[in-house]
Design brief:
About 0% of the residues lie in helices and about 35% in strands. The protein is an all-beta fold. The chain has two domains: about 30 residues, no CATH class; about 70 residues, no CATH class. The strands form three sheets. A four-stranded antiparallel beta sheet has the order 4-10-6-7, with no helix packed on it. The chain is elongated and about 45 Å long.
């Protein structure tokens, strides 16, 4: 793998799906409908819960989690625990917003 293997290269052609190169995350064609942005996971934050669920299965390594607009770090602030769930290292308070971006499987 080259040192630049984690750089996303996108080719956009009018009216056609985009092609993305991202080892271990995306192979082949990626449609706009495969990308989920700013989804609110369940359940709602309550200061106790650390395990959250997303609506669709995500591709391993594609999940990005935000806590009150701060980007959380994978394997430090959260862990992908299944294709539809993740675990935060600290439970968010009920007044905090948790959002996710991911690529569907």
């Amino acid at each position: 793998m080259s040192p630049q293997a984690n750089i996303i290269r996108v080719t956009v052609t009018d009216g056609k799906p985009i092609s993305v190169s991202f080892p271990s995350v995306v192979a082949g064609q990626l449609l706009a409908s495969d990308i989920v942005r700013q989804e609110t996971p369940t359940p709602a934050p309550d200061g106790i819960t650390t395990v959250f669920n997303v609506a669709s299965a995500y591709r391993a390594g594609s999940l990005q989690v935000y806590r009150d607009q701060a980007v959380l770090l994978r394997d430090i602030d959260f862990t992908e625990t299944s294709p539809t769930s993740f675990t935060l290292t600290q439970a968010p308070d009920s007044d905090e917003a948790v959002r996710t971006d991911y690529i569907k499987q």
